[in-house]
Amino acid sequence: MLLASVWTLASAAPAASVPNGTASPTAVPLIKKAVQAAGGEASLLGYFTFKDRVLIGDKDTGFGSKRESVMDAPRHWWLKTPGGYSERKDEPATFLVCAWTLRALTDAASTIETVPDVKDGDTELFGFRVSGSVTPAMDLYFAKSTGLLARIDWRSDIHRFSD
Description:
12% helix; 163 residues; mainly beta; globular; six-stranded mixed sheet
């Protein structure tokens, strides 16, 4: 599945110290590297609005379902409807948002441990397994060269990120 997004507003919520949950000793410096690569804790998205176009399949045909959402990462997602906004309760994608905003790395409910490094294409990646704040557990991978999020492995899906 492809997801094309246009950000319309971004404001950072106050963030906890990195990490705020339970993290293995080997994970702590890598968590700090990943959060710093994203601009630091104060830059992590918390409450924000975005517009996106959801595409199913491997090819962007220019079509797709357009929608507008408000997120309060990591717990809430409201979708704009003709009558206002309605909350998407029990929406699994909120866990993905929690991950790609890196809030999963600062959430007090998270338990974080390192996973073996992997290579994705030409990119060497370091990774974490996050549980507690995410169900089921999710693996996040970051480029060793930049510290930026490169991939999320969750359930049976692999989500890749690019510039």
